[in-house]
Amino acid sequence: MADPKGFLTTPRREWPRRPIGERVRDWDEVYVPGALLPIIGPQADRCMDCGVPFCHEACPLGNLIPDWNDLVARDDWRAAAERLHATNNFPEFTGRLCPAPCEAGCVLAINQPAVTIKNVECAIADRAWEEGFAGPAPPDRLSGRTVAVIGSGPTGLAAAQQLTRAGHTVAVYERDDRIGGLMRYGIPSFKMEKRHLERRIEQMRAEGTKFRTSTTVGRDVDAAELRARYDAVVISTGATAWRELAVPGRELIGVHQAMEYLPLANRVCEGDLETSPLSAAGRDVVIVGGGDTGSDCLGTAVREGAASVTQLDIYDRPGDARDEDTEPWPTYPKLYRLSPAHEEAGVLRTAPEAAEDSDARLFAASTLRLTGDTDGRVRALHLVGVDAERRPRPDTERVLPAGLVLLALGFSGPDLKDGLVAGLGLELEPRGTIARDAGFATNVPGVFAAGDAARGQSLIVWAIAEGRAVAAAVDRHLTDGTTRLPAPIGPYDRPMTA
């Protein structure tokens, strides 16, 4: 480490956010531009370079965190970028979107605030682009083998880049009109501006990866015919089959899935639409679901000018500190966290009847039914407080005004309606994900599955790790059984738990 006493003398400082009143008026990223680099060197110096770095284990990519912390502290940005890109294809994505399980596993976090690993990662990635350290890396020669990657989310892009760099000819098929999957139309721009995505896509094009947009395999292209045209196929379509809310009134006008709402807002930012047909402007919005997708809806509704926004979480309010008995270090604890969207909603007082410390969330709340007007439009959501077993608590029913209800209840597996799974004859797991063996291979020879489509809904850092691992499996299949590509995880690996 550059400073052996850095973790003792330097307090944790995070990338400052722009003032709330300023950032809710635009769709730019919430952080103060240029404010990270001046503080990141001393923050990297807080890394203890501990003998057993559990941040490695907490990160499925196996990021060389102490290495690049030390290099940043020494102002060696080129070497830091090399170490970072050795394990992560898209660190500017994870540096903005990942919840940083590595920080929960930081040894310093046993009794102090963890190293700002996520901020250091983001600083290295951004500096790499500014200094020209992230140029294309095309292969020296081509193998003559071809691969189709279906889906252009983080798993598909990571797999495609790894396989292209290994010398295979790769084509990525995407059903939307632009590349990026959930990062394109699911993640709001205030969390990650799309210029970061565009930059990586251009890098991949320069390396030789081909992209086919507006193409749904199974509908626009016969799945079996596609398989016959390529030496291998990687399915990385994500888990897009959303979970439903089975309550009376679900059919009312104004009740929509989060992934019907968020893509339209993103298309406004892309310039495709002047306004979203599902805009929250002037409406009382209720979001059912307490996860990250619900938080994305919350920040979007605030920016669209909602009259009020309330987010319902069926779980109790988490504690402010780690429970060492149930979630000991180095596992990722369930804590009360304020995302930028929650911070905005709390300060702007968008929640009706908000408590003094409200951030627009109602915890331990379950939806009973939705009611509407004579035109069939939703007007109210009826809820009840629940205990830890999700049993209704007496005398806790209440009614929230609702002109727009957004369902953010998670996803169960790949969408079966497009014909891809049936067209290839793929076997599914009981929970609805694509079945695969220890080598990421499905029951169909030459067809591999990775990411949320096979793992189930997970984090972006696991998605990229899956993409890198499945690329190694495909490379091994296409060659003589060996590969030089890294495989950071296996298909059955899971996050650390107590």
From TrEMBL:
Pathway: Amino-acid biosynthesis. Residues 36-69 form the 4Fe-4S ferredoxin-type domain. Keywords: Amino-acid biosynthesis, Glutamate biosynthesis, Oxidoreductase. InterPro entries: 4Fe4S_Fe-S-bd, DPD_II, FAD/NAD-bd_sf, FAD/NAD-binding_dom, Glut_synth_ssu1, Glutamate_Synthase, Helical_ferredxn. Pfam families: Fer4_20, Pyr_redox_2. This is Glutamate synthase subunit beta. It comes from Streptomyces hirsutus.
